[in-house]
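Structure in, sequence out. Go:
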């Protein structure tokens, strides 16, 4: 088994130790950490409706913060949630500076070539109704639902860390947000 293979299975704490201690394995350990956590960090950044370039910048900022604080990490096993929290905090700063957030077409419909044109119109109307209902939700609900539907999927622990909320509150809050979304949809709307 190569060092890279061993690191792929290693817990975050062991990887951070290898990075902190330096040596020949430092680059391999860092690469595994980046591959393991960057997609989820990017998902957190994108949940703030930031453009891809800004999201990538926030992910890089979080990695830089980790490097700056390598010697201060108290719980190396929680580096994933910590990185998500850094991205969340940085994203909030960006959103606050901009005061307006471009709305991405979260529920974008891609036409299926084999369908009649009116099927695409109906699908577009349904997507527009869903976007409109989603936009009427409060910021907290929109943020939670974006994280719950992030791709790649985030764990409840990662979502809790990204939102700065207790894990146990996510399920009930998610249910209330989905109910608000259902009520905001036009009557007769069928998923």
């Amino acid at each position: 088994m190569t060092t890279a293979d061993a690191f792929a299975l290693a817990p975050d704490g062991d990887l951070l130790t290898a990075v902190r201690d330096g040596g020949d394995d430092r680059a391999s350990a860092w690469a595994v950490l980046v591959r393991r956590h960057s997609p989820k960090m990017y998902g957190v950044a994108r949940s703030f409706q930031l453009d891809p370039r800004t999201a990538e910048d926030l992910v890089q900022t979080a990695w830089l913060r980790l490097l700056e604080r390598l010697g201060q990490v108290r719980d190396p096993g929680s580096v994933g949630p910590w990185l998500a929290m850094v991205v969340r905090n940085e994203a909030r700063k960006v959103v606050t500076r901009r005061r307006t957030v471009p709305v991405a077409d979260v529920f974008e419909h891609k036409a299926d070539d084999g369908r009649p044109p009116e099927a695409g119109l109906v699908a577009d109307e349904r997507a527009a109704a869903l976007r409109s209902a989603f936009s009427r939700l409060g910021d907290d609900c929109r943020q939670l639902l974006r994280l719950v539907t992030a791709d790649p999927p985030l764990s409840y622990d990662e979502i809790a860390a990204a939102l700065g909320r207790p894990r146990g509150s996510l399920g009930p809050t998610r249910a209330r947000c989905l109910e608000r979304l259902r009520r905001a949809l036009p009557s007769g709307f069928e998923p």
